[in-house]
Amino acid sequence: MIISPATRAYHVTRHSGATLHERPHGAPLARLLATVTPHPLETSFSQSSDLVPGTPRRPKKSGTIAEVFGGLQGREPVVLPERFAVLKQQICKNPELFEARWRSVLRELENEVQVIGQKGSEVVPQVAYSDIEKGLSVQQVQEIKKRGVVIVKGGVPKEVRRDLLPAFLLSTTSPSSIGSSRWKQSNIDYVAANKDRVTARARAHPALVTTQAALLGLWHTSSTAAVGLRTPISYFDRLRIRPHDPSVFTLGAHVDGGGVERWEDPGFRARILGTEGVCSVFRPWQGWTALSHTAAREGTLQVLPMLTLASAYIMLRPFFARCPGAPARSLAADDWAPDLASTAFPGSVPAKAQELNDESHPHLVLPKTLVSIPRVEPGDQVYWHCDVVHVVEAEHTGSGDSSVLYIPAVPLTLQNAAYLRDQRETFKRGQPSLDFPGGEGEAYFVGRVKAEDVKDKEAQRMFGLAPFDVPAGASESEKNLVDAANRVLFA
Fold first, then answer.
1. Do the Cβ atoms of 318 and 22 come closer than 8 Å?
2. Per-residue confidence (pLDDT) for residue 11, from 0 to 100
3. What is the pLDDT of residues 173-216, one digit of tens each?
4. pLDDT: is 14 or 291 the higher one?
5. Are 416 and 403 in contact (CB under 8 A)?
6. How far apart are CA 140 and CA 390, in angstroms?
7. Fewer Cβ atoms within 10 Å of its own Cβ: the N or the C terminal residue of the chain?
8. Secondary structure of 302-334 in the HEC alphabet?
9. Kind of pairing, strands 149-153 and 126-128?
10. What is the rounded CA–CA span in Å between residue 88 and residue 167?
11. Any residues with CB less than 8 A from the CB of 431 and at least 6 apart, and which?
């Protein structure tokens, strides 16, 4: 099975969603929440047409990133149907054991909230790219696993860093470069730009590829798992340009990849609800590379740096409610009791990202524990586990644009190879990748990169334009995976 780099008693894994697995030395949270099914990487592909490796996916309808989040569209709280109360009863077979684990999580949370409140951004791990090259220390690895986030400083040469954002802006300012590929939210530009020369060069930069392989190496697989953690592929995401002004961004704290689907289906088959907001590849690390310097209060990323503990709390939260008559803001464990009768799944909206605030998840004390990442310079990389609670700062009071290029760490798997095959076709046509709202995208951009413009062999492999090589010292399962992935891509 695939497990996350989590360290304590709580393990969270993600493959188009999340599956919980038991720690041999700690509280078996998975057993508390549901019967654990085999991880999707170890099972046959779903018969859904957009998951079968031999079946190309269809583009999504046109839209914007706003459709991913309930809060961006001013929705009233969603009242879920009665089947969600039944779901809670099906999952919680032993309320007493659930409550014992709940109290244990609350005790740990109280301590961790104090630590983060005192240290703030200092708890976010930072490593030099030279540490990535020589190998992370045991202490660095432990801290990254605990926090679920890391900043990698350096690695991209100064001349490349200096030219990234100006060159990108120059390459996308022709009249035919402005249109459906951009979405503005409170004066923030989200640019679905993947086919310009700047982003293409950045996605295959050796420092980024080396970093991704190192971070993927923090994950663990069974000997037979069909996943190539040493073989990153390129998942085309977006670029964000945020001008300096006092505008307020309305996207709240959230976890990517669906809401109620985390509990509704053991394998987290989010397509049950037809969501527009789920990353359909196995993506252990979301990430971005800074194109400008960005610091606190400059529209940067904020994270809740306690991956395993927060994940356990989020999964348990729907099963408890504040007792009638308890103080309105009480966090005391004695003022909370099991709630298996209501349909409430706080912050969860079908087919949307899981959202959190101080009302829905009060024990996280988000006003205190959501911390801005330390200052980054152009070329610095930021990665976070896809179950980390995060948000973009509400205001940008700095003096320049805050710009980042989203480049996650994604390994080779059969399902990922199928996505890469279909992404390759949208790349050739200049259209948005298939996890994103459709439309003409960059089809009519002047000077956009064509497949024949990608000369670097590593970039060709990462973009699905050339066959993958078998890594040195590969296991039999790795060899079989590379062979099968190449058949998916080039059969």
1. no
2. 34
3. 443 333 334 444 445 455 555 555 667 888 899 999 999 999 99
4. 291
5. no
6. 21
7. C
8. EECCCHHHHHHHHHHHHHEEECCCCCCCCCCHH
9. parallel
10. 52
11. 59, 438, 439, 440, 441, 442, 443
- At 186, give phi and psi (nearest 5°): 55, 45
Q: Token pair for residue 159?
A: 């001349």
Query: pTM value?
Result: 0.84
Nearest residue to 402 (alpha-carbon basis) of 178, 279, 249: 249
Pairing mode, if any, of strands 10-14 and 402-406?
Answer: unpaired
Please name which of 205, 207, 210 lies closest in space to residue 230, comparing C-alpha atoms: 210
CA 257 – CA 259 distance, rounded (Å): 7
- Residues shown for the chain: 491
- CATH number for the domain formed by residue range(s) 10-490: 2.60.120.330
Q: Which residue has the higher pLDDT, 41 or 248?
A: 248
pLDDT tens for 52-106 read 566 676 666 655 555 555 554 455 678 899 999 999 999 999 999 999 999 999 9
What tokens appear for 402 in the block?
A: 């805050």
Contacts of 380 (CB under 8 A, 6+ apart): 151, 152, 153, 154, 156, 289, 290
Torsion of CA 108, 113, 118, 121, to 10 degrees: 110
CB 248 within 8 A of CB 186: yes
Cβ–Cβ under 8 Å, residues 397 and 244: yes
Cβ neighbours of residue 100 under 8 Å, at least 6 residues apart?
Answer: none
Report pLDDT digits (tens) over 314-324: 999 999 999 99
Both tokens of 105, joined, read 């999580």
Per residue, what are the HEC states of the chain? CCECCCCCCEEEEECCCEEEEECCCCCCHHHHHCCCCCCHHHCCCCCCCCCCCCCCCCCCCECCHHHHCCHHHCCCCCCCCCHHHHHHHHHCCCHHHHHHHHHHHHHHHHHHHHHHHHHHHHHCCEEEHHHHHHCCCHHHHHHHHHHCEEEEECCCCHHHHHHHHHHHHHHCCCHHHCCCCEEEECCEEEECCCCCHHHHHHHCCHHHHHHHHHHHCCCECCCCCCEEEEEEECCCCCEEEECCECCCCCCCCEECCCCCHHHHCCCCCHHHHCCCCCCCCCCCEEEEEECCCECCCECCEEECCCHHHHHHHHHHHHHEEECCCCCCCCCCHHHEEECCCCCCCCCCCCCCCEECCCCCCHHHCHHHHCEECCCECCCCEEEEECCCCEEECCCECCCCCEEEEECCEEEEEHHHHHHHHHHHHHHHHCCCCCCCCECCCCCCCCCCCCHHHCCCHHHHHHCCCCCCCCCCCCCHHHHHHHHHHHHHHHC
Q: If you search the block for the tokens 């991913």, which residue do you land on?
A: 68
Where in the chain are the domains? 10-490
Distance CA 387, CA 34 (A): 18
Averaged pLDDT score across all residues of the chain: 80
